[in-house]
Specification:
Blueprint lengths: L4 H29 L1 H12 L12 E2 L5 E3 L4 E6 L7 H12 L3 H8 L7 E8 H6 L3 H7 L4 H10 L4 H17 L9 H7 L5 H12 L3 H9 L3
Antiparallel strand pairs: 1-2, 3-4
Length: 222
């Protein structure tokens, strides 16, 4: 049976209407149902976050000689409530910070205080050497026992965390071309590693090579 021209037109119109309905239904799904996921996907494809550390501009005179420089420094403070041996702890801290033990002891025994500065604008190397489990606990205003328990719950130890922090600092210093004039021993001591064999052994365990090999690999001319 042959269709009339009018019938063919009706069939074609029906197919077009069905296609249009399908397109509209798909648009509704995209715009209403999936728009959040698709928007997030598009944003992820277009936007790539990058951390750009802020750097202070140089302050120089008309001949280019720096008039001011920026040096990283830290403040060292404590909570006297958690100081159990003021004389002994003052002696250790004073030796590292280059202060008089009597002055440190007086600050450690400040009455009715929960926050006392032991040093302001301390050189980063010195501040790292002064870091111990007890001083770390005091800095965060918790007891040493709570600090050790908190680290243990995460499968770590306080001493291990401090050691890793110092090893990372040594690795950064060894990779710094500006510090090539300093011996490896001097770099290690500035970060609190006094025993050279012990330091070399720890460094090899973490980085898989000696400190000398590490420095040579990263500072070799390319």
């Amino acid at each position: 049976m042959k269709r009339t021209p009018a019938g063919r037109l009706v069939a074609l119109l029906g197919a077009m209407v069905l296609a249009l309905v399908g397109v509209i239904a798909r648009l509704v799904v995209l715009q209403v149902g999936d728009h959040r996921a698709l928007a997030a996907q598009g944003l992820q494809q277009r936007v790539h976050p990058t951390d750009l550390p802020a750097e202070r501009g140089a302050i120089v005179d008309r001949t280019g000689v720096p008039l001011a420089i920026t040096l990283e420094a830290r403040d060292i403070y404590t909570d006297p409530r958690y100081v159990t041996d003021p004389i002994g702890e003052a002696a250790k801290i004073a030796r590292v910070l280059g202060m008089r033990a009597r002055d440190v002891e007086r600050r450690l025994q400040t009455p009715d205080s929960t926050f006392v500065y032991l040093g302001r604008q301390i050189d980063v190397h010195i501040a790292d050497r002064a870091l111990t489990p007890r001083t770390l606990a005091a800095v965060h205003f918790v007891s040493p026992r709570l600090l050790h328990r908190t680290f243990a719950e995460r499968g770590h130890t306080v001493a291990g965390w401090i050691r890793t922090r110092r090893l990372d600092a040594v690795a950064r210093d060894l990779a710094d071309p500006a510090l090539l004039h300093r011996s490896i021993r001097a770099v290690a001591e500035s970060r609190g590693f006094i025993d050279a064999p012990h330091f070399n052994r720890l460094f090899r365990q973490v980085h898989g090579c000696t400190p000398g090999e590490y420095r040579a690999t990263l500072t070799a001319p390319r």
